[in-house]
Amino acid sequence: MDLTVVIQTLSITLAIASIVIAILSYENSKKKNEIDVQMAEDKDLSEYAVTLLENTYKILTDNGENINPPKPIRLSWLTSARYILRYKRIREQIITARYQLICDENEGMWRHEFYKILNCSDFNHMSYFSGSSMFNSCENIEPNSAFVITEFSTWADEFQDPLDLYNYKTSLAKNPKILSGHIGLKNYLNKLENLGSDEK
After folding, report:
1. Residue 50 CA to chain centroid, in angstroms?
2. Nearest Cα to 148, choosing from 87, 73, 91?
3. Is the pTM higher than 0.85?
4. Are 151 and 82 in contact (CB under 8 A)?
5. Can you tell me whether residue 192 is helix, strand or coil?
6. How far is CA 18 from CA 11, 12, 22, 29, 111, in A?
7. What is the pLDDT, as a whole number, of residue 52?
8. Distance of alpha carbon 108 from alpha carbon 96, whole angstroms
9. Any residues with CB less than 8 A from the CB of 110 and at least 6 apart, and which?
10. CA 152, 156, 160, 162 torsion: positive or negative?
11. Contact at 8 Å (CB) between 128 and 122?
12. Rg, C-alpha atoms of the chain
């Protein structure tokens, strides 16, 4: 084989390899850029979603001043429910697992706050929602808004409670000093243990 042919063949092979490497490099760079853009968008969305949840609570409770119960103001219930629905729509758009987790954790915290305010006995009376003078309001609470907020305050059936996976006895066996100085809890756990052994 002629040396010129070998050099031409090597040149062509190197040129093709360079093109392939350039294409792969471009694709990797493009993919990384898309991931970076997605993460930036998800970060912005998650921050906005968390703010929506906080504002949802503030609107219904007059910045936390009226929580037992919140004042039966129709507009407050409507706006709060709308914010919850906006939050859910935004949360569905978030793709990055990290920002999904941030939203989910904040949602759980705010769900608990709503649960606490809706656990007030005043909500057992229809008059709270129907604009009775008993609550100094002539406004009926719009049913969809009341339901959205009540639904948000409850845990979904598929919620996996992390406490279901935890066993205090295992942690106590690993570190018995946990109960040092916590006499009340120690006595309570001992009582539970004794009750359990009595039942056997």
Report:
1. 8
2. 87
3. no
4. no
5. helix
6. 10, 10, 6, 16, 56
7. 96
8. 18
9. 53, 54, 56, 57
10. positive
11. yes
12. 30
Task: Report the distance separating Cα 11 and Cα 168, nearest Å.
Answer: 69
Which two structure tokens, joined as six digits, stand for 141? Answer: 């609470």
Contact 179, 186 (CB under 8 A): yes
Look at the block and give the residue holding tokens 């100085």. 181
Residue 58 structure tokens: 């503030």
Determine the pLDDT at residue 197: 60
Q: Tens-digit pLDDT profile for the chain (200 aa)?
A: 677 777 778 788 878 888 878 787 777 777 777 777 889 999 999 999 999 999 999 999 999 898 888 988 999 999 999 999 999 999 999 999 999 999 999 999 999 999 999 998 888 888 888 876 555 566 789 999 999 999 999 988 888 888 888 999 899 899 989 999 999 998 999 898 888 765 43
Q: Do residues 64 and 117 make contact, with C-beta atoms less than 8 angstroms apart?
A: no
CA distance 137 to 127: 10
Question: For the residues of 151-174, what is the DSSP string, one character each?
Answer: HHTS--TT---GGGG--HHHHHHH
Can you tell me the distance from the alpha carbon of 158 to that of 58, in angstroms, rounded to the nearest whole number?
Answer: 28
- Contact between 120 and 113 under an 8 Å Cβ cutoff? The reply is no
Give the C-alpha separation, 99 to 53, whole Å.
15
